[in-house]
Amino acid sequence: MQRTPDRMVSVRECFGIDSSLMVPMFDERDDHVPEIDTAYRFNAQVTLAILAGFTYNRRVMVQGLHGTGKSTHIEQVAARLNWPCVRVNLDGHISRLDLVGKDAIVVRDERQITEFQEGIVPWALQRPVALIFDEYDAGRPDVMFVIQRILERDGSLTLLDQNRVIRPHPSFRLFATSNTVGLGNLNGLYHGTQMLNHAQMDRWNVVATLSYLPREDETGIVLARVPELADDAGRALVESMVAMAALTRKGFATGDLSTLMSPRTVINWAENCQIFRDPELAFRLTFLNKCDEAEWPIVSEYYQRCFGVELGEAATVGAADGRADRAVPQASR
């Protein structure tokens, strides 16, 4: 519990980012350190913001649309620093007692006694742990005021039931991810999100915005996740998929579509191509059926631009000239 980082490492060497920043790192990994994803691509600006949190104990919030990899970004930074990391999803079922702790009946020496069991916040606060509050803007108001107590850099947590004050471990770090930056469900995309208290938002020292990756990087990630598509035909297919995703994002931004394809959706589409052996059927089952039927003509137009065939005719045309068959590399069969 008194463990602290063992050494300082260069951001340039560890993350390949042109910066002179030195960051703390643990030499040994434990069970709470995330696994390193070698295919993950870092956004330089967001990475520096997260590293500032680890190095200078800043409270860092990462906001952005779904599927951009906000939580994964923090975890992958922690993984390379061997920093223990715990994620808590602030869904509607998380209560104040879950975070702080509560009395529970336990058996000691064959007798039932009432004993206080710490919640995740006091547990993490006393350890060298990076605590991530996922879906931060979906938290209940009573839960958010518990978190507000520890948002100060040296913020202590008072357990009223225990008459005890918990002071943070020197290597405790706090992060959060959100879709709306505390402004609520303005565009109708994120139901269940709340408008956050401005005094609480003001306590976050750094707020970074994570956008979707450039097409080349996104293509590389999909190919890394689905290595069966790593030949020339597979790369061409994935590039068309990523181009399709980019069009849905532009359509969403202009109000033509009510949903969009995230990188996660593209990966699911590529994986489903391996299952169904038909890119068009995989597309329908992965994304199209999630869209409003009134938007299908727009989606079909996007598909025609990227694949050269109408969405409804893709399977027929592909079967006639072998295109759909060639879309799935021979190595994957």
From TrEMBL:
**Domain ATPase dynein-related AAA as annotated: residue spans:** 60-186
Signal peptide interval: none
Any GO MF annotation of the entry: ATP hydrolysis activity
Q: Which SUPFAM superfamilies match?
A: P-loop containing nucleoside triphosphate hydrolases
Domain (Cobaltochelatase subunit CobS N-terminal) spans: 2-33
**InterPro entries for the chain:** ATPase_dyneun-rel_AAA (IPR011704), CbbQ/NirQ/NorQ/GpvN (IPR050764), CobS_N_dom (IPR025865), P-loop_NTPase (IPR027417)
What's the superkingdom here? Bacteria
Q: Which Pfam families match?
A: AAA_5, CobS_N
Q: Report what the protein is called.
A: Cobaltochelatase subunit CobS
Please tell me the species this chain comes from. Trinickia soli
